[in-house]
Amino acid sequence: MKLYWKLFCSMVIVTVLACSVGGYYLIDVQLRNSVEREAASLYEINDLLRYALHRELGAMPVSLADLVRRAEKVEVTTGGSTVSFRLSDREGTRQGGKGTLPVQSAPLVSQLGEEQRGWMLQQVEERTYLHTASALQLIEGTLYLENCRDVSDLFADRAEQYRNFFTFMLALVVGVALVSLLVSYLLFRPLGRLSSATRRLAEGALAERVRVDSDDELGRLSQDFNTMAERIEAQVQALTDAAQRQEEFIGSFAHELKTPLTSIIGYGDLLRSRPMTPEQVRESAGYIFREGQRLEALSRKMLELIVLDRRDFPLREVDMPEFLNLVGRTLGPALEEQGIRLTVQAQPGRVPLEPDLMETVCLNLLDNARKAMEGGGTVCLEGTVQEEGYRIRVSDNGKGIPPGELARVTEPFYMVDKSRARAQGGAGLGLALCQRIVSLHGGSLTLESVWGEGTTVTIDLRGGAQA
User: Is the model's pTM score more than 0.90?
Assistant: First the structure.
């Protein structure tokens, strides 16, 4: 049984039991008090009869015959009628009296002592009588003076009260049931909402909350649920973000791993396939060694940047012409292999950078330009001094970006040409990572593209100074 119905039934049952026991107890107490008042009244009449007999007989002890003879002359009137009485012995045998009593003597007088009086109720032919008796001392022994009264009306009144009380109880039960339904509904409505919210939360609706309508225990329980749901949502969101950062790290690292490897493979292929002077060999080996070192440092910095969400990388001033020319030479063999001509033009200036991360940005942009070209083309890497900093621009005459896609290319995992990007090993993380790194430097990254004509990516860095 649901708690709602348990509360409803409990309220009805407790109310019915309490009112029934109390009502029937009060009715019975009222009857008992009424009977005791009637008994007191009969005792008074019995005392009047005793007084009348003593006055008739005098103070001296008399015999049984005298008492019986004189008793017939005693007359006591109450309420306009003469009181009937009876004189009986210990066995309940009538010895005298006046009038007729419908009750039997033996049940009462057999319980009385020689100097006692008492009363009892007797049922005679569907009528109820209150029977009283008191002891009289004679020469021959003890007689009992008895009188009685019909108290059937008292029991009839009690039966009527029972019927009225039963009718009242039926109405009370209906009223209590309606009130209990309303109270149970009002009490358990918050619990119902809380239960529904709990089920929806378990199904994955982490934003689910319950309305708090009161400040009682149920209201505080609802508030505690909301607090718990908020914490669960925050924890799940934190886990989701962590998992997304890990996925982004894996994709970004795999993406960034390709650029140094491209340079290493390109220079390794030069060493393997062409006769070179000792100076050219040292230069190619130097690029291979440098890219290996950069790859090692890049793995650690990418982990800190993406997984640990670090934002306080130390910056150092870098000579921009030297930096940009080094970037161009790093990707030179790969561009030359595809028939792409790279031009590097850089104005003198020094900018605070994290070199490994900013080199990753420039190499990403150059690599994207390489992928956008089929059958050769031209890529230009420029560096110019601005009033508030330094500008790096990468432009190409490749296929460009469709107008509807331009606003989304910096979203993580978004790729304009998915089939070509996957064929070339792309994961759609290059530009998103570039924008993140540029933001860490306090700069901005903007894209301009004309479909079929080419793309220009501009990076504006603050804090540059002319050398």
Answer: no
